[in-house]
Structure formats: C-alpha cells, structure tokens
C-alpha cells in the first residue's frame, strides 16, 4: 500500500505579522511542491511526523472514525526551500496530514478537515501561527485570509489569478535562512505591540489598507498600483523591525529597477528569507545579479493539495 499527497509553497503578498493580530492578509500559492509518501513497512520515524500522526489519530478517535494502525515508512520529496518564508513547514503539515488520514482509514477527507488538522500541527511547530500558511498550501490560488477568532478563520479564495502583466514582473530572491525562527519573529512583534501599542496598532491598520489596495490592483490588473502596495508594505514591515539592515543593504541594487518586500516572518540580524521583487523597468537579471543572491521567477499555482498517484 502506498499513499501520497503533495502541497504547494506559498508567498504572502501583503499582511504578514499583522495577520497574527486579526488583520487580513493576501497570500498566493506557488508552483513548487512538497510530497509526502507513506508506504507500508518498517522505517525510521521523523519527530515532526510523530506530531502529525498524533494529531490525526486524536481527530479520528474523537470523531469515532475507524482506523487501522500499521507500521509504515515515509518519504518526503520537496522542491521548497526550507525556513525562508515560502511555507515549507505548512506544505509538510498539509501533505502529511492528508497522507496519514488516508493511510490510516483508506479514505479521502475534505480540504477543510485537512486544513484544520494541519493548523493544529503548525501550532506544535510555531506556537501561535495565524493559519495563513497552511490555508494557502491546502486550498491553493489567491486567498484573502483573516483570523477573526481562534475558532473562526475567514478563508476567502478569490476566483481570479494574479494577472500575467503582474506575474511576469515578479521574482523571488533568496537572501538566505534567517537566524531567527518564525516563532521568534512573531514574538518580537508581540513585544513591540506591548511596548508601543498605539503606534503598532496604527501600523497594522495601515497594513490592512495596503492589503486591500493590493487586491484592487490585482483585480484591475494595475501593475503600478500593485508595486506601490508592495513598496508600502515593505516600509511598514521595516517599521515593525522584521527587516534586517544586512538584507536592506544587499538588496539596494533592486531599487534601480523596481520595488521589493520581504515575504513571511523576516529576520532581524542577517538574512530575511525570500523577498518578493517587482521588476518594473525590466532590468531584472542585471540588478538581481548585483545582489549576489539566487532568484527565480514567480509562478502561480491554483491547485493546492493534490493526491499523487
Ligand atoms: C509567516 O509565514 C507569516 C507570519 O505572519 C506568521 C503567521 O501568520 O503565522 C509572520
């Protein structure tokens, strides 16, 4: 018996960090996948998979869904760079939850069930995630996401794509793996909110405005308006203290041809993970090479979680 599911990477286009505090964020899934395969037989277990197994079994027991435990081995194949803001952890959680559900019961479950369980797994890994990463990976496409309460997450899957005139200008630039974990960066913003509640809440409100502007820019296929939102979102993230001086200095050449923003939790001391770059003037490669970082073209995905045969 072999069970296999894959789930895509994600890119937060606008609203990271503010989304932890109930503000909306806009996220897109990306055409890079992680695949979990479970096979019958003996094999070494991974610590992270034990978490998935525990969460899935708890759910099945609580809902009185019959399942059969049997020994297994697992294979993970991933195209997603790890720990750099592209949601490798969330795609692992989503693909692995779906695989375990099917391995234990022989049945497929809805994406809603998989997503809820993947969120529980993510909480084990990251403390207090907003749930945006696993939702983007599970459902795929463009998602306007807002966590109203712990029990109510509004996942609005928009029925349009990133238009080609915008997508063609987008690159993802790899500044490297941040020294800090997502959990640490989320805690850092939490401290700022405690120390300067009024100012920080104002930043979050401004992020919300920018996120909505970005949705409008996409609907109207307006590249310049989109770029303006990216630039403003980056400024606000810098105010939140999640963009290191190191990265800003290295990314300076990008300004010759366009605008950029970090995507995901960012970093304080060194690298900030991946950066979303909008190459407005079309000098793309020339300025990207100057940064010394590796990069690739953004490619939209709208399939989300998939069963692999
Ligand atoms: C991480 O990809 C995005 C953050 O907003 C954290 C979260 O939403 O859980 C920084």
Main attributes of the structure:
about 300 residues, alpha+beta, Ribosomal Protein S5, domain 2, Alpha-Beta Plaits, 2 domains, 6-stranded antiparallel β-sheet, 4-stranded antiparallel β-sheet, 10 helices, 10 strands, binds (R)-mevalonate
- How many domains? 2
Helix content: 40-55%
User: What is the rounded distance between the termini?
Assistant: 12 Å
- Name of the CATH class of the largest domain: Alpha Beta
Radius of gyration from CA coordinates:
19 Å
Question: What's the pLDDT, averaged over the residues?
Answer: 96
Major sheet details: 6 strands, antiparallel
Structural class: alpha+beta
Residues in β-strands, percent: 15-25%
Count of strand segments: 10
Please state the oligomeric state of the protein chains shown: single chain
């Amino acid at each position: 018996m072999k069970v296999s599911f894959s789930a895509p990477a994600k890119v937060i286009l606008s609203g990271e960090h503010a989304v932890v505090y109930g503000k909306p964020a806009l996220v897109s899934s990306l055409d890079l996948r992680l695949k979990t395969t479970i096979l019958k037989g003996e094999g070494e277990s991974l610590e992270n998979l034990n978490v998935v197994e525990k969460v899935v079994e708890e759910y099945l027991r609580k809902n009185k869904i019959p399942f059969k435990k049997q020994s297994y081995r697992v294979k993970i194949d991933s195209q997603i760079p790890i720990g750099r803001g592209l949601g490798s952890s969330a795609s692992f959680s989503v693909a692995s939850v779906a695989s375990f559900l099917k391995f234990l019961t022989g049945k497929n479950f809805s994406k809603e069930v998989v997503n809820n369980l993947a969120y529980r797994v993510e909480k084990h890994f990251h403390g207090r995630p907003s749930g945006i990463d696993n939702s983007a990976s599970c459902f795929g496409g463009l998602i306007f996401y807002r966590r109203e309460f712990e029990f109510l997450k509004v996942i609005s899957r928009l029925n349009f794509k990133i238009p080609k005139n915008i997508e063609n200008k987008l690159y993802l630039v790899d500044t490297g793996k941040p020294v800090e974990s997502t959990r640490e960066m989320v805690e850092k913003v939490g401290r700022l909110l405690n120390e300067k509640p009024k100012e920080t809440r104002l930043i979050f409100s401004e992020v919300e405005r920018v996120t909505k502007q970005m949705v409008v820019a996409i609907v109207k296929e307006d590249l310049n308006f989109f770029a303006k939102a990216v630039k403003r979102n980056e400024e606000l993230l810098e105010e939140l203290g999640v963009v290191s001086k190191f990265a800003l200095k290295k990314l300076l050449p990008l300004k010759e041809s366009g605008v950029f923003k970090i995507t995901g939790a960012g970093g304080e001391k060194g690298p900030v993970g991946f950066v979303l770059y909008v190459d407005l003037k079309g000098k793309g490669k020339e300025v990207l090479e100057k940064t010394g970082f590796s990069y690739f073209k953004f490619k939209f995905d709208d399939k989300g979680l998939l069963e692999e045969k």
